[in-house]
């Protein structure tokens, strides 16, 4: 027959070994964590192990003084076990924030008092007595509880019940293996509590001594099983559930057999599971498809989920996911993450549709001009299939005469990210003809989504041909008009030589009218040449310097004009054409004045966020029809301007985002007396840019003087002015 004392000793020491193993393994799993769950668990299990060791030593020592010492030491070291268990439960269930140093000290008061009473036992308040009893044929010391001991056991019972309630709640709130993990911890906690309850109640069939130290070994076995099977201490269940359930991404955890271990609420909703899906084959949750097979094999895929939860590849009104597969925990366990990219995918498809259905050609080329992408519009414009062009070199399709003019600006912008290049060139059509494309290429090599030149090209073949015809017809018209006017002027000279006063007067009128008509072609051509560089928004220009320069030239052109220029310090967005605009207004005042001494006043003033150039004169004013047509920007047969001077001013100001307006100011007392004031409004430049404009001499040549004109008598070069009227370029070839 097996000796009873040996059995108790072996059971006690085995319990100590199991508890120590559980605590050590838990420490190894939690040593990298910042919370104190590992420390509290080690305190709990190591405390239980010491309790069991002292119980075994007490049994071995028997009713001796040493056995008496082991008895008291056993109860002293057992007092903090309950508090350690409560702290572990709080940390494990995600309530670690509640555990503060002050509250920990308060929780330690009861164990400290109980330990002191165990040692001192004043007046038998903790133990009524300590007696020797024979248990299963062996004699050992046992305690007879007093009031203090009963209260201590009652406190432990309440703490144990609170611990089990915390663990039960965690098990209810968790799912999958984490629910089973929390349930296993709750079972382990209930075993010592049940043993202590039996000791206090002492039913007839229960052992007549406290078996809690031995039962701790059973709790340790349950915890070791939970650590192995349910990955206890990898993640606390409530902390896991808080993060896991709160994720917007759909999460599915599968084991080595592709069976579902866990799903989060987002996955259950996305795949219409109707439950948590735990235990089902992954193929049932993610219906058989090539994407699902690749995903379970560990590959990242893109999947599309219909409203009914089926994965499919045809368009409709689906939900789009990016799915990834990552290993998790032990070998074979994987986590499948489905990120909802529906909005992004729909936006990408929308923009792709914009590009694919646009009339303009969208293309991307690398640094060597190899086409990496070209939109379907190329088929309608050039007759080429987009797939046949991708991978080819763009310059192979460009007219040989245009290749250099296209390649050079792109090559120059290669080292300047974000720079735009405007190009116009001829491209070969599939039928062998040529089409003119005009557009912009932007250096987007720094953009990982593009990584090349992004080009937007528009078919301008019809416009180019129209402009070519217009240029030819205009040149022919000017040529024929000049020839015919020369004939008219020749005959007028013959008439004037007859000596008849009436005939001479008529001949003079014919000559003057023909001269004005002959100058019209040159004037129109000057307007065209002047405006070729317009529409660029302008740059900072010293407006006062421009006004002064125009005033000086006007005094030379109209010696009889009384011209005053009053300026404030003003810098505005303009260009070299500003002088031409101001000149045309001043010239208009001089040419259309009906007196011998026209009086003109030019003022420059800042008006808030604008700079105003006001030109007032004492002439008859500008006709109503001219003003309405130019201000509205439209002409009709009944409403149009009588000349092109005001139109030129309007176009120059439009090019720099300025405004042209007219102010009625019939003031005979003014100097000069005015009928209509012409106002040119420009955007103000402030700060450092304005100071820099005032410090430079660049705008002091506001007429855009260009070299390269015909040689002057002194061997120099005659300036070529970008303007009209007296400073128009009359030296150029009319057939240009």
Automatic annotation (TrEMBL):
Signal peptide: none annotated. It catalyses: ATP + protein L-histidine = ADP + protein N-phospho-L-histidine. Its main location: membrane. It is found in: Membrane. Residues 476-684 form the Histidine kinase domain. GO terms for molecular function: ATP binding; protein histidine kinase activity. CDD domains: HATPase, HisKA, PAS. It is a multi-pass membrane protein. GO terms for cellular component: membrane. GO terms for biological process: phosphorelay signal transduction system. Keywords: ATP-binding, Kinase, Membrane, Nucleotide-binding, Transferase, Transmembrane, Transmembrane helix, Two-component regulatory system. Pfam families: HATPase_c (PF02518), HisKA (PF00512), HisKA_7TM (PF16927), PAS_3 (PF08447), PAS_4 (PF08448). The chain crosses the membrane at residues 6-28, 40-61, 73-93, 105-127, 147-170, 182-202. Its EC number is 2.7.13.3. Residues 347-417 form the PAS domain. This is histidine kinase. It comes from Halobaculum lipolyticum. The lineage of its organism: Archaea, Methanobacteriati, Methanobacteriota, Stenosarchaea group, Halobacteria.
